[in-house]
User: Which sequence fits this backbone?
């Protein structure tokens, strides 16, 4: 059996690993007109900080269509926009087990030459990563995205990342009867 399913999760489901740390840094600003450090909107979630590295997480449901074949992870997607911030890492988990890591990504600046600083409109090499070899999934998929926030340019230009969506493409793997048991 050979089929694929792509599953998407909206960006307003992203969570900060340490939201209190973001809020503490942001509370030191003298400008009360600045937007909040965590801001959920209809099109995603903004996270704002300055001068720190931190992680953001999202879970992606895993399709189990027929109950006969285990799904295999083929590609991940993370749609974002950055402003004075850099996506450094994307770690992929199957439950609590890290199954893949993309390090030293340095995703900042101009990922889309038509729309500088934006990678949330189209799928490209900046916001999608192939999983090679494909990995059989036992439980659920989680993405952990490490972001380095720059020092602020001024009080009117906060360092921020906006996540608009995340997803994954799954294919059909080995029949469950032939797959070794994983304790």
Assistant:
């Amino acid at each position: 059996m050979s089929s694929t399913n792509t599953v998407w999760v909206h960006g307003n489901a992203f969570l900060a690993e340490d939201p209190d740390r973001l809020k503490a840094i942001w509370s030191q600003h003298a400008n009360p007109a600045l937007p909040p450090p965590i801001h959920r909107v209809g099109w995603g979630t903004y996270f704002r900080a300055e001068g720190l590295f931190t992680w953001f997480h999202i879970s992606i449901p895993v399709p189990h269509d027929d109950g006969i074949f285990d799904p295999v992870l083929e590609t991940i997607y993370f749609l974002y926009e950055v402003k004075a911030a850099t996506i450094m890492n994307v770690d992929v988990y199957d439950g609590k087990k890290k199954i893949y890591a993309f390090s030293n990504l340095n995703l900042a600046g101009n990922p889309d030459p038509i729309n500088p600083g934006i990678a949330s409109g189209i799928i490209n090499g900046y916001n999608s990563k192939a999983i090679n070899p494909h990995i059989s999934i036992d439980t659920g998929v989680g993405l952990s995205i490490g972001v380095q926030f720059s020092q602020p340019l001024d009080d009117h230009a906060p360092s921020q990342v906006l996540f608009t969506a995340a997803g994954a493409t799954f294919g059909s793997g080995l029949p469950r009867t032939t797959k070794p048991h994983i304790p």
